[in-house]
């Protein structure tokens, strides 16, 4: 037998016994919803044995569904696993055809809106607000709301006509936090997909959060520019004082803006991982 054939057989046998090389992970199973869930970020209503744990990042998650909605509990077990989720929100990338591709997602995040914008949002959702209630809202300039958008592969919000919105809540839990989310089944369907969604087949879902927001990047770039200008000025002054000797700022020092930017980028990494989800049969 040639060396090439022998090593090919060895590699094939090795691949059979290595987890994750030739065999996909077992799908996570959503449980039938036994009782109504209040979306408040409190995991107390969820069965204690329903959480699936990931080691890196250190998070846990569970699913329940009824005939109309998918409920998700997502727990961050420590501060490191949270990254910058409070600034970026969380996106669930959903693929109906079994591929790990981020073409369509549901983005859950918090945003600040004016009182007038909040009134419009509530009225668009079908709430009837009398003049006194509107006056009460208008007594404050702005509000933080729990928002949910369907997004394309660029992360841009896209319309999903005829589909009611989802929502979420977050609550601190020890060193981490718990997120509770709910999505109507209509939000699980990519409006741009070529094939119709078969709810009996597992969904590919990617949890993604963290990283630097555009505002964070702009703020850091501004800080870097200010620091560079101050360092250049300091170098010139120092050079004149010591008669042409070397001077300037150490941009590898932890206190410098560039080093600080690197530290922030390392701390607030974008994190994500894929799972296969099998929905519970509707009752």
Descriptive report:
Helix content is 28%, strand content 30%. It is built from seven helices and 13 strands. The protein has helices at residues 3-17, 79-82, 85-88, 115-124, 131-138, 214-241, 257-267, and strands at residues 28-29, 31-32, 52-54, 59-65, 69-76, 90-95, 104-114, 142-152, 157-158, 167-173, 176-184, 203-210, 270-278. The strands form two sheets. The chain has a seven-stranded mixed sheet. Strands 2, 3, 4, 5, 10 and 11 form a six-stranded mixed sheet that branches. Residues 3-23 and 231-255 have low confidence and may be disordered.
Short description:
This protein has 283 residues and is of the alpha+beta class.
Record the SSE blueprint.
Layout: H1 3-17, E1 28-29, E2 31-32, E3 52-54, E4 59-65, E5 69-76, H2 79-82, H3 85-88, E6 90-95, E7 104-114, H4 115-124, H5 131-138, E8 142-152, E9 157-158, E10 167-173, E11 176-184, E12 203-210, H6 214-241, H7 257-267, E13 270-278
Reading side by side through the largest sheet, how are the strands ordered? 1-13-12-6-7-8-9
Shape call: globular
| CATH architecture designation of the largest domain | Sandwich
Number of domains: 2
Tell how many strands the DSSP assignment holds: 13
Q: Return residue spans where pLDDT drops below 50 for at least 5 consecutive residues.
A: 3-23, 231-255
**Helix coverage percent:** 25-40%
Descriptive labels:
disordered N terminus, Immunoglobulin-like, seven-stranded mixed beta sheet, 2 domains, six-stranded mixed beta sheet, 283 residues, alpha+beta
């Amino acid at each position: 037998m040639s060396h090439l054939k022998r090593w090919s057989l060895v590699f094939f046998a090795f691949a059979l016994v290595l987890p994750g090389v030739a065999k996909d992970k077992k799908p996570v199973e959503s449980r039938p919803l036994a009782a109504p869930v209040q979306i408040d970020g409190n995991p107390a209503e969820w069965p204690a044995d329903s959480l699936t744990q990931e080691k890196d990042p250190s998070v846990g998650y569970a699913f329940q569904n009824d005939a109309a909605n998918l409920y998700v509990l997502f727990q961050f077990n420590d501060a490191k696993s949270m990254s910058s989720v409070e600034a970026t929100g969380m996106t669930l990338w959903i693929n109906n055809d079994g591929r790990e591709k981020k073409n369509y997602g549901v983005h859950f995040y918090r945003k600040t809106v004016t009182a007038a914008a909040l009134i419009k949002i509530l009225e668009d959702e079908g709430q009837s607000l009398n003049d006194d209630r509107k006056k009460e809202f208008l007594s404050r300039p702005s509000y933080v709301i729990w928002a949910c958008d369907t997004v394309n592969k660029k992360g841009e919000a896209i319309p999903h006509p005829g589909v009611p919105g989802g929502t979420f809540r977050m609550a601190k839990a020890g060193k981490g936090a718990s997120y509770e989310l709910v999505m109507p089944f209509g939000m699980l369907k990519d409006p741009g997909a070529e094939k119709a969604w078969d709810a009996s087949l597992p969904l590919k879902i990617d949890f993604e959060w963290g990283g630097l927001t555009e505002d964070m990047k702009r703020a850091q770039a501004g800080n870097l520019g200010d620091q560079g200008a101050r360092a250049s000025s300091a170098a010139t002054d120092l050079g004149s004082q010591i008669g042409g000797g070397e001077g300037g700022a150490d941009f590898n020092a932890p206190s410098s803006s560039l080093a600080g930017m690197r530290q922030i980028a390392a701390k607030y990494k974008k994190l994500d991982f894929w799972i296969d989800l099998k929905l519970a049969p509707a009752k």
